Structures are given as structure tokens and as C-alpha cells.
Amino acid sequence: MTHTIFAHLQLLAQSIDITDLPKPAADSDRLALIFNIVLTFMGATGLLIVTLAGVRYMTSRGNPQAAAKAKDAILFTLIGLVIIAMGFVIVNFVVTRIG
Fold first, then answer.
1. How far is 68 from 62, CA to CA, in rounded Å?
2. What are the average pLDDT values for consecutive 10-residue runs of the chain, which has 99 residues?
3. 48, 38 in Cβ contact below 8 A?
4. Within a 10 A sphere around the Cβ of 86, how many other Cβ atoms?
5. Cβ-count burial of 46 within 10 angstroms (0-12 exposed, 13-18 middle, 19+ buried)?
6. Looking at residue 17, what is its pLDDT?
7. Are 70 and 57 in contact, with CB atoms under 8 Å apart?
């Protein structure tokens, strides 16, 4: 039964005409600029979160739960910043290869 469903879906997909769809003129420099602005904003937000979590850690006054929450926030934000940095590198690499 699933084979017939996939066969029907394949026939349906082959019957769709995509020649009339608009073809956007995406400039690679514009795409790189947009991605870099978004990634820079995300990085700045991450640094702000690390700073605020550091302040929360310093003001935890020996409370183990508050200190653990602040440490977790710092750790998770730093992991996020590493992912953002990798995204920045990947986007710039791909855009330079395309453009």
C-alpha cells in the first residue's frame, strides 16, 4: 500500500510545472551581509547573557541553587556562542564559494 502511495506522489510531483515560478536574483554579497548581521546580533546577545549570568553567579552569596543556575546559563550560552561562530564561518565559506 505504501508503495502505491509513493508512486502516486511521484506522479503528482512530476506533473507539477515549476517553469513559471519567479527566480529571485539573490546577490551573494547581500545574503552574506544579512546572515552576518543576524549572527552578530546573536553573538552580542550571547555575550550579554554571559555577562548577566556572571553577575548572578557573583551575587549568589553561597546559594548553591543560584550558583548552579548561573553556571548552567554561562555554559549553555558559551556552547551557543561556539555554534554561532561556526555558523558565521560556514556562511562566509559558502557565500565566497558561490559568489
1. 10
2. 73 75 72 86 93 94 93 95 90 78
3. no
4. 10
5. buried
6. 73
7. yes
Residue found by looking up cell 559568489 in the block: 99
> Which pLDDT score, from 0 to 100, does residue 26 have?
67
Q: What per-residue confidence (pLDDT) applies to 20?
A: 73
Helix/strand/coil (H/E/C) assignment for every residue in the chain: CHHHHHHHHHHHHHHCCCCCCCCCCCCHHHHHHHHHHHHHHHHHHHHHHHHHHHHHHHCCCCCHHHHHHHHHHHHHHHHHHHHHHHHHHHHHHHHHHHC
CA 40 to each of CA 12, 65, 78: distance values in angstroms, whole numbers, following the listed order? 43, 32, 15
What count of other Cβ atoms lies within 10 Å of the Cβ of residue 70?
Answer: 20
Give the count of beta carbons closer than 10 Å to the beta carbon of residue 53. 20
d(CA 31, CA 39): 12
